[in-house]
Design goal:
Strand content: 15-25%
Radius of gyration: 22 Å
Bound molecules: fe (ii) ion
Largest sheet: 8 strands, mixed
Helix content: 25-40%
Length: 421
């Protein structure tokens, strides 16, 4: 495969990229535009990118595929709170079976692939004695591995230590093959159990040699401070880059003096952060009147401190959030607005938040990125740089994985009847 006239992120020139045996074999800057009208058919192994942006695939670092497409079944979340979402999901859980999960997961993965995602980290609820969601997701991960990368987090939705047999279920999930240990300290019955759960999560990660991704302090309570316990354990056990704190919405409400002290630990620990802008702006601030908190973690400040942070969608039509469409560009748009990352400089590297930073969180940087020798996995976007793709919410026109075309889209064409000059 050969791609001509491609723009690469943060580069002024046009590029030609060559692919052999599924890897990038050459990436060269061009002297100018190559005029080759014939080169526009991926099926012929020749692609004329025509000045559009070629970038590494989008990374969805936090989604709940087991719950996707279940909103309103059997009841809708009327209050819009996280905790009602957990209640509504516990009503749906007894209805889960393998076929139901497979069908919904495949539809959702298709939606993500159609929008440029090639790497997914999904949480799978282990607060279910049958573990049907977790097992089905692990099975699908293996079955779909030639088409998409999926990491499965064993996520104790109702508590690791507060739910009956929560710890045993977690261990069963890890033995079955879950890639990542999860946690939910702010939902444990007491602060002590929350803190203990963070130590347990790190111990399990060491014992089973797995990554860690905790739903951490997903609450507006400024006293929810499990993040410091997680980061400290990660630091002391030298696991930092293998550990992720998702949500950390309480950080929005921490006082600045505490945050200043906390950031020193976060930076030293090297842990990663995931923020879910649409989910958090919807679920948080629900107990406020006015002024009403935004309830997102301090993405701008984390980013400026050199701490790795990425955006995720979290939900697609589930008990917590009844919109969502697999478009990470939408989450990025929301996130930049809510976090006030709207400076010219922010726009120049905006796609980092749904590409490179997500890849770092997933610990896949050894096989991710537009570099000679790496797998030829990329997407082609409507737009020429981060700014124009973001501003126009550019569509994904092509997604190629290890040299194989995963999806193609024809750009929409508008015909004006009355505006012609
Ligand atoms: Fe989540």
């Amino acid at each position: 495969m050969k791609i001509i006239n491609a723009r690469l992120r943060k580069q002024p020139d046009l590029y030609t990229l060559e692919v052999e045996d599924g890897l990038f074999s050459a990436i060269r800057a061009q002297q100018g535009y190559i005029d080759n009208a014939a080169a526009n058919n991926p099926a012929d192994d020749m692609i004329n990118a025509d000045g559009k942006l070629l970038c590494a695939p989008f990374v969805e670092p936090h989604i709940h595929l087991d719950a996707a497409l279940t909103a309103g079944e059997p009841n809708w979340n009327q209050s819009g709170t996280l905790f009602e979402g957990i209640e509504r999901w516990s009503e749906r859980k007894p209805m889960l079976n393998e076929q139901d999960i497979r069908q919904r997961v495949l539809k959702t993965v298709e939606l993500l692939v159609a929008n440029g995602v090639q790497h997914i980290r999904t949480h799978a609820d282990t607060s279910d004695p049958t573990l049907v969601g977790l097992k089905t997701l692990c099975d699908l991960r293996d079955e779909l591995k030639d088409r998409i990368d999926i990491q499965v987090v064993a996520f104790p939705q109702d508590g690791l230590l507060s739910f009956p047999n929560g710890l045993q279920l977690m261990e069963q999930a890890l033995e079955y093959g879950a890639d990542v240990v999860g946690g939910i300290p702010h939902f444990e019955y007491t602060r002590e159990l929350g803190e203990q759960s963070m130590k347990t999560v790190i111990e399990l990660a060491l014992r089973y040699d797995r990554l860690v991704d905790v739903h951490c302090d997903e609450i507006d309570d400024p006293n929810s401070r499990f993040l410091e316990v997680l980061a400290c354990e990660a630091l002391f056990k030298e696991l930092g880059p293998r550990v992720t704190a998702s949500h950390t919405t309480a950080m929005h409400s921490y006082d600045n003096a505490y945050c200043s002290k906390l950031f020193r630990l976060l930076k030293q620990s090297g842990i990663n952060f995931v923020s879910c802008p649409t989910e958090s702006i919807h679920l948080q601030g629900r107990f406020d009147s006015y002024p009403k908190r935004r309830g997102l973690t301090r993405v701008k400040e984390l980013n400026e401190a050199g701490i790795n942070v990425c955006f995720a969608e979290d939900s697609i039509f589930d008990p917590w959030y009844s919109l969502g469409n697999g478009k990470l560009l939408r989450s990025l748009d929301f996130g930049l607005h809510i976090c006030q990352m709207m400076g010219y400089k922010d726009f120049q590297s905006a796609l980092d938040l749904i590409t490179d930073n997500g890849a770092r969180t997933l610990n896949i940087t050894d096989r991710y990125g537009i570099e000679t020798g790496k797998p030829a996995s990329f997407i082609l976007l409507e737009g020429e740089d981060d700014y124009s793709v973001l501003r126009n919410q550019g569509e994904v026109l092509l997604s190629v994985r290890q040299g194989e075309v995963l999806m193609q889209r024809q750009p929409a064409r508008v015909v004006f009847n009355r505006l012609a000059h």
